[in-house]
Amino acid sequence: MTERKPPGLPVETWVDRQIREAEERGEFRDLPGAGKPLPALDQPYDDLWWVRGKMAEERLSYLPPSLALRKEAEDALAAALAARGEREAERIIEDVNEKIRAAIRHPLEGPPLNLAPFDTAHSCASGARGTAAPDRTRRVRRTAGHRGRCRDSRISRRLASR
């Protein structure tokens, strides 16, 4: 740890001395990236360059909450269809349905959610029979809440007519 700046000594002189002493001790030798060009010099300036770099380094990603919930719902459907028992599948679907209902009551940041809670009985029964259709819009019937009609059912009718 560095010592405190002595009173009466200009900050610049004190900092220069600290750097010089660290160089003499060899603390700047073998730093990662030494002798290599700076990354992303040819890209436009980004205020959050260090955040993006850290996220890439840590293999993290950020999705707006509404998109993260959509992805979680897709993953939950896949997990429910692969579940060993009907009770486990129902629990998975109910867990994601609870989050979807909460997001409908209190809208999330990001693009529109465009999700309705899944029909647990139908989802679990089709998963237990192993009759899941290859298209996500066909494998799950949405609960009534959009005047009995659902965008998913219109898409599946279009796909079926092809």
TrEMBL record:
Residues 126-162 are annotated as: Disordered. Pfam families: DJC28_CD (PF09350). Residues 138-149 have a biased composition (Basic residues). This is Molecular chaperone DnaJ. InterPro entries: DnaJ_homolog_subfam-C_membr-28. It comes from the Bacteria. Residues 14-78 form the DnaJ homologue subfamily C member 28 conserved domain.
